[in-house]
Amino acid sequence: MSDLLFEMKNIEKIFSHVHALDHVNFDIRKGEVHSLLGENGAGKSTLIKILTGVYPKDGGEILLEGNPIEINTREDATKQGIACVFQELSLVPTLSITQNVLLGKEKNTLGVIHYGKEKKEIARLIKRYDFPLEADAIVETLSVAQKQMVEILKALSTDAKLIIMDEPTASLSKKESEMLFQIIGQLKERGVSIVYISHRLEEVFNLADRITILRDGKNAGVVEKKDIIPGEVVRMMIGKRLSEATASRELAMSEEETVLEVKGLTRLGYYEDVNFVVKKGEVLVLTGLVGAGRTEVIRSIFGADPYDKGEILFEGKSMKAGIKGTIRAGFGLIPEDRRTQGFAPLLSVTRNVAVTNYDRLAKSGFVKKASEDKLGEETVKLVDLRPANPKVQVGNLSGGNQQKAVLGKWLTRDLKVILIDEPTVGIDIGAKDEIYEFIEELAKKGVAVLLISSDIAEVLRVAHRIIVMRDGHVVKEFDDGSVTQEDILLASSGFGMTGKEGQNDA
Question: C-alpha angle 131/134/139, rounded to 5°?
Answer without folding.
Answer: 100
